[in-house]
Amino acid sequence: MSRYVKISCMAPPNKEVDAELGLEETVLQMIARWKERLQHVLPERPDLIVLPECCDDPAFEGMRAEWLYEYYRYRGNRVRDFFAGIASANRCYIAYSAMIELPDGTFRNATQVIGRGGEICGVYHKNHITIRQKSTSDTLYGKEAHVIQTDFGRVACLICFDINFDELLEAYARQKPDVIVFSSAYHGGLMQAYRAYTCRAHFAGAIWQPDPCSIVNPVGEVVGESTHFYPFVTRTINLDCAVVHYDYNKAKLDAVKRKYGDKVRISDPGRLNAFLISSESEAFTIQDVVREFELELLDDYWVRCRADRGMPGHLEP
Q: Which of 195, 188, 193 lies closest to 211 in space, CA to CA?
């Protein structure tokens, strides 16, 4: 049974501000610029909007870290509350990435997932901030990474430098997310496809320009990217999907196609020997198809391969 979700990923608007106008005017400028930028995707009626890392940071020539943290303290939750109003008015989720101050006066680089009613569904603290950020501020490393439940599926959050660390993605993979939300100041290159494949999840990346925002499927195919002239991308993905290997499945997949035709989609990225299959019908789920044709999921196949290697007499002395 198809589970279509429409996702929009956005680059930030112009962050340049006139600091001489003061902190209040700076906050108002950032809200106004995001209000304008959001008009490019809200008419698409997305289920989820992903914003880039530190999306409401202002910038000006000669800006000092001390001024920026003063801005964070003054801003508080005002920009977040603006996005909460947008989420509520448009019945969508928003992944809002920004620096936040905790009650003890320390800071976190965080993604707050705002729900369709403007409520906070979950918060992720960046597990892997950079050494530079730690050495120049009161920002601390996050230590937990839990998927966030939404009405369309399970969301895992990554922020920028996080994408490089296997232990974080392996922790997420065990939780079986449906979507990885990546709020970032850089693209990550080949790591985007690798992390989508690691978690068998769709990947939604909101990136600072000039790199593109991107949406990637669980076998590493880019299904949508932003451009220079359109620094945002919206695509509809289907979360009723599964990843299977070529071995022992190819003949069965041919039989699936003969029976169900365009009601089941099979996506082969090439070179990987793994396929993404999805149900495009309201009559059955992809797991129904997996059971009917006794398809072996990729992760189950890896378990079986490891077990076979460990059987008596199978491993070289």
A: 188
